[in-house]
Amino acid sequence: MTLGPVMMDLCGTTLSAEEAEMLKHPLVGGVILFARNYESPKQLAALTAAIHAARREHLLIGVDHEGGRVQRFREGFTRLPCMRRLGEIWDHHPQKARKLAHQVGYVLAAELRACGVDFSFTPVLDLDYGSSTVIGDRAFHREPQAVAELAHHLMLGLKEAGMACVGKHFPGHGFVVADSHLAIPVDERSLADLEVDDLIPFRQMTDFGMTAIMPAHVIYPKVDDRPAGFSPVWLKQILRGELNFNGVIFSDDLSMEGAKVAGGVVERAQAALHAGCDMVLVCNDPASAQIVLDGLEWAMPAVSLARLARMHGKLHAPSLVQLHEDAHYVDAVHAIGGIGMDSGDLPLAPPGSDPCAER
């Protein structure tokens, strides 16, 4: 049995017998973790070990751990700034911002790897137009070149600690006001407009060797009438064909409002996979996850399996105790602590009050 195309989530801080049985399903290929799955580094390490022990194949374990508002694990982890802080430093000290981005990526990845997590869904490559209700300070900057360079150095930090990266949300979620967790955003710009702005970070990060991409649940009607994550035009023709991206394509959460235009949850999974996704996410809705496992028919292409193999955490990961005794790690943590925090970096609101809190 090989990895399947579905990434599911879990309800709590331990793996239940029912969830362990679901992980054995041949369509399952990974697990995404949220704040509700975390109590402490020790508990997290035990949970990831249980996930990996659930079946012979090493299931992928991912998390949205960007920094700022979207940092799932806090107590026992370094508090990471939102990416806008790095962009603000870039405006005055670009070289300092590059180094700090590298250090943020390294600390982020080293701590997650120490607890058995394979990768984080980061960096955000969206541009900060100042209007999005969901992107905002998660973005590095408004200027695409600043975003590309800071994301590149964050990626290098992730790689140093043995972690792949996932750029999101292709081809750019920062321009539209609506939040795709709650609505179906529509971006009326032309492909030419996107090419000279939002697509630049994705193109450059592809050239830098970005491992994976997550498309947006946004419709760009002047390119295609389907959201990007369900569009062969965006994923096969533009991303694979014109940008020459050869990494993994993860769908965004199929339970989000922006995904519902594709039909029922099985139809959404089928549409995303046929459009070019290698793995689909079904989050915060256990019943829908089971419906997908019961109803989806999909044979994993060999090329998808080869791509997904690159998402496994690399290197022999040191424990958090060992990290805390490593001078390189300690220096990086001290540098991050000097970046400064503000209201954009406060802990997440309770689940349900902030869409980012559970996605």
Task: List the defining traits of the structure above.
10 strands, 359 residues, two-stranded antiparallel ribbon, TIM Barrel, disordered C terminus, 8-stranded parallel beta sheet, 39% helix, alpha/beta
Helical stretch count? 13
- Classify the fold: give the CATH topology: TIM Barrel
Let me know the average pLDDT: 92
Per DSSP E runs of 2 or more residues, the count of β-strands stands at 10
Number of domains: 1
Summarize the structure.
The chain has 359 residues and is of the alpha/beta class. It has helices spanning 17-23, 41-53, 83-92, 94-114, 144-160, 191-195, 199-208, 232-242, 265-275, 286-295, 302-309, 320-324, 327-337; strands spanning 6-9, 28-33, 60-63, 65-67, 70-71, 119-120, 166-170, 212-215, 248-253, 279-281. It has one domain: Glycoside hydrolase, family 3, N-terminal domain (TIM Barrel).
Can you describe this structure?
The protein has helices at residues 17-23, 41-53, 83-92, 94-114, 144-160, 191-195, 199-208, 232-242, 265-275, 286-295, 302-309, 320-324, 327-337; strands at residues 6-9, 28-33, 60-63, 65-67, 70-71, 119-120, 166-170, 212-215, 248-253, 279-281. Helices cover 39% and strands 11% of the residues. The chain has one domain: TIM Barrel (Alpha-Beta Barrel). By secondary structure, the chain is α/β, with parallel strands linked by helices. The strands form two sheets. An eight-stranded parallel sheet has the order 6-3-2-1-10-9-8-7. Helix 2 (41-53) links the parallel strand 2 and strand 3. Mean pLDDT is 92; it is low at 346-359.
